[in-house]
Amino acid sequence: MTGRITSLTTYDVRFPTSRGRHGSDAMNPEPDYSAAYVVIGTDSGVDGHGLAFTIGRGNDVQVAAIQALEPYVAGYSLEETVADMGGLSRRMVHDSQLRWLGPEKGVMHMAIAAVINAAWDLKAKLEGKPLWQVLAGMSAEELVDLVDFRYLSDALSRDEALTILRTAQHSRAQREQQLLTSGYPAYATSPGWLGYGDARLARLARQAVADGFGLIKLKVGANLEDDRRRLRVAREAVGPAIRVAVDANQRWDVGDAIEWIRALAPYDLWWVEEPTSPDDVLGHASIRRAVTPIKIATGEHVHNRVMFKQLLQAQAIDVLQLDAARGWCSTWPCSTWLPCRDPRRTAPSSTLTTCMSTSWIPWSSAAGATWPPGPPVSAPKCGQPRYAGIPIPRVRRGPGRGDLMSAGESDGPTALTVGGGPTIGLATARPPAGCRARATLNSKARL
Predict the structure, then answer these.
(1) Structural domain contains residue 150
(2) Of 17, 271, 410, 443, whose Cβ has the fewest other Cβ atoms within 10 Å?
């Protein structure tokens, strides 16, 4: 493989999801789901695609941040870049002047995530495999080389990471086959947007169960009585056997969170997501202690591996959630996921669950040594998707042990449901055609 990276092109893609209250929650009542989309061009005829997810205003700022990374990609050897993905990450993360804008957080961090995800997409296409199989085929040493151990060595050393991966290598083929034959557990957020009325909530909840989902999630946090009513509607629609999780989207202070969760406890909550500020590690720990056995989940807005390290050390969460469009798809999650397989660092009362969640890209993790971001999954009742003749594991709907992924965010005409969005790691080469967006360079795409 020879060639060079020739360009880094950005697109400002936006969808008016606020018109139907799709994606609405207690903190974000009128979001316009958007993507700062990036394409890495090469002279080989193969390109790589990535994005940073935003909710409207500010997407232009995110696009500008991605464009600022062009000098760190364009002009470089294609072969050398995809052979050293950890090096590409460190090249951008450790630029001292750009690092000043974080460090390792915020708009610049998300911009690097978009470029790294695009580079992984490029690597997977060049190898002719889905990304999850590229990662599943890497050695323990190659995976550990992706990890930046700076600030992690007090909790996880390189040798410890290698031991975790090597110990599980014997069952790698079995886990890969399980993904191909049984799929991957998922949950549905479609019924639960805060702007949806009770009738729509009930209809979509019943539809989610009919489609095979064993866990649905509702948005909460704006009004306690409304939350009680909506949970009652959901429970009546799905019955007692279906798990129901809720998401407060950072709305509460610590004391309010504890009182609110206790008030909703009679509805048998499976987990409570983002009950308070994602930066408040000790606040999450206090909430968790006060509301056990209800699980506490967070991670979609956690800045970096250091904060995840602290959440684990403080035993502050039961469900660790990584956002593939905020932290790059493997380089960053590897450094977060590996400590979760060390029993010294997981929650004492249960096995820590990892959950890949993003409104745009359905990633997941393999429950074992390789931590491959999971494959894109087919929409309900669709045939099994394939890439380069290789079958792609479908999502298994229904609660499963271990890791989960979020699937299906809306039922409206602007829905970005499973299989409908850009799928990093496969041969999708355009912004989501299913949403009829026509994007031009640095232009706003509208329906």
Answers:
(1) no
(2) 443
CA angle 302, 304, 309 (to 5 degrees): 90
Counting the structural domains of the chain, the total is: 2
Residue 182 shares a structural domain with residue 226: yes
The structure's pTM equals 0.80
Q: At 207, give phi and psi (nearest 5°).
A: -65, -40
Specify whether the CB–CB gap between 191 and 410 falls below 8 A: no
Query: CA angle, 35 as apex, 337 and 7 as ends, to 5°?
Result: 90
Neighbouring-strand partners of residue 118: none
Question: Which pLDDT score is estimated for 269?
Answer: 98
Q: What one-letter code names the amino acid at 315?
A: Q
Q: How far apart are CA 415 and CA 190, in angstroms?
A: 9
- Residue 251 CB contacts under 8 Å (≥ 6 apart), including other chains: 26, 27, 221, 222
**Which pLDDT value is given to residue 357?**
58
Q: State the DSSP code for 43.
A: T
Distance separating alpha carbons of residues 101 and 69, to the nearest angstrom: 13
Pair (276, 405) in one structural domain: yes
For residue 138, give the H/E element and its range: none
The DSSP result for 245-258, as a single string, is: EEE-TT---HHHHH
Tell me if 142 is assigned to some domain. Answer: no
Show the domain range for 343.
170-426
| CATH code at position 117 | 3.30.390.10
88, 113 in Cβ contact below 8 A? no
Spell out where 224-273 has E strands. 243-247, 269-273
User: Length of the chain, please?
Assistant: 447
Are residues 395 and 318 part of one domain?
A: yes
Mean pLDDT of 350-376: 40
Which regions of 250-307 does DSSP assign to beta strands (E)? 269-273, 295-298
Looking at the fold, whether 265 and 370 belong to one and the same domain comes out as yes
